[in-house]
Amino acid sequence: MKYANELFFAALSLIMWGLVFGSKYLISVKKIIQPEGFWYLALILEASSFTFFAIAPVIHIGLLTLANTFLLGGYIYLASYCRSLSRPISRKFKWGALLALLIIGLIFQYLMQRGTFVQRVGFVMVLTDLAIIWQLIELKHLNKSRTDLPIFLIFTLCGEFIFVTTRLIILFYIDPPSFIHLYDEPSLTAAVRWILFSLTTLSYIAIIDYSMRKITIENTQTNRENQKITELLKEKERLIYGLMKANKTAATGALSASIAHELNQPLGASNLNIQYLKMKLEKGALNPELGKEILDSLEQDNQRAATIVKSLRSIFTKVEVRPQRLQVGELISRVLDIVKPELKAKNIQIQLRVDERLVIEANSAEVEQVLLNLINNAIQALANSGRLARRISIEARQVGDVTQLSVADNGDGVDHEYRPHLFELLSTTKQTGMGLGLWLCKHIITRYGGKILYEDVPGGGARFTVEFPPRPNY
């Protein structure tokens, strides 16, 4: 049948180009020059080769040089892919493969001009057999390192080797005229060639299937790892919440006696007023003025106790961590309501320099806990300093687009040996304590994109400064 060879090559080229475009999603363009992309480059070369085989009789017979060069290039790069499955591919190896391809093209062009048909086909078939043997050897190395072998590819390669050798033997046995070209080849060897190239197409289908299975396995492993990471992150959050809860208890535990004393005062006063009110009512000696005076006193005592309880509850209540607009001045006032009894008991003065217009976006309970930790640390530092005039300075100001909140004391400061690890977990300068406070402070602040810093106070003491970034960055 006239043009049978051309039609066969045209059909094969369409199939191969379909594989090229259909498998494009398996590999990005940037990876075509990487080891993982060798099979894709080989596929492009084979598709180009079959295209040149199909159009050479129509355009120019010299295109057979490109066709055969690209055909052998496909086998070489396919062998490179098999090699890349078990070992890395060096830059020298890549340049060597390209140089080999160039030399093959020059030799075949020489044979086109000076050699016979059998010499040309023999040259191509011998190199094809060597390339297939190379591929099988590389896959054998893969078997030593992995279990996921491309079994179907091994079968197709063995089939190709058999039919390449068969075609070579038949051609030498028939010994066709030296002046003919591929398209005048005897029908027997042509049929063998068609089977051979069909197996070549199946080899690339096997590679695509192998690559897809690898991607599926990798995606499954990635999903499992992501699930493990998600579980670990959740466990981390639970652990951090537990540490924060423990730290809240530790931070307020030292103040519990003073807080209890502070609560007992309004509750005790309320109880006396209630007893006095009952006595007057029983005697019928309660006039409106006295009743109003007693009720006003009860209301003040109740508000005083409620303020303390509210401040404690805002810190201990588990709420969703969602940033909200907070007045810095109000935050400081709520924390001072909690530590006020301890400040009185230890004779510590508070100096406030707060810009009441300052607003930040954060979770109120978390920021209050940071303040409580810093003020509590300052109280303990002053209690151990031996100073008579004890002072804690709290300052809130705007510096550029950053909101700064600092707590400073006039104690002894922090020793140089402790400073590098000041904000590390389980690092503490105290004889009692777990070393959670400053680490949690840093953890909370960095979640909002801020930072916490330490510096010495001139004349003695420590200053911890918390910086909140501009609100649009949250």
Described by strand count, sense and barrel closure, the largest sheet is: 5 strands, mixed
What gross morphology would you assign?
rod-shaped
Element order: H for helix, E for strand: HHHHHHHHHEHEEHEEHEE
- Relative helix content: 55-70%
User: How many discrete structural domains?
Assistant: 3
Class inferred from helices and paired strands: alpha+beta
**CATH class category label of the largest domain:** Mainly Alpha
Stated plainly, the CATH topology of the largest domain is called: Rhopdopsin 7-helix transmembrane proteins
Q: What is the mean predicted local confidence, pLDDT?
A: 80
Catalytic activity: ATP + protein L-histidine = ADP + protein N-phospho-L-histidine
GO molecular function: phosphorelay sensor kinase activity
Keywords: Kinase, Membrane, Phosphoprotein, Transferase, Transmembrane, Transmembrane helix
EC number: 2.7.13.3
Describe the overall structure.
Helices cover 66% and strands 10% of the residues. The chain is of the alpha+beta class. It has 3 domains: 4-229, Rhopdopsin 7-helix transmembrane proteins, CATH 1.20.1070; 254-317; 321-474, Heat Shock Protein 90 (2-Layer Sandwich), CATH 3.30.565. The strands form 2 sheets. The protein has a 5-stranded mixed β-sheet with strand order 2-4-5-7-6, covered by helices on one side. A two-stranded antiparallel ribbon has the order 1-3. A hairpin with a 5-residue loop joins strand 6 (451-456) and strand 7 (462-468).
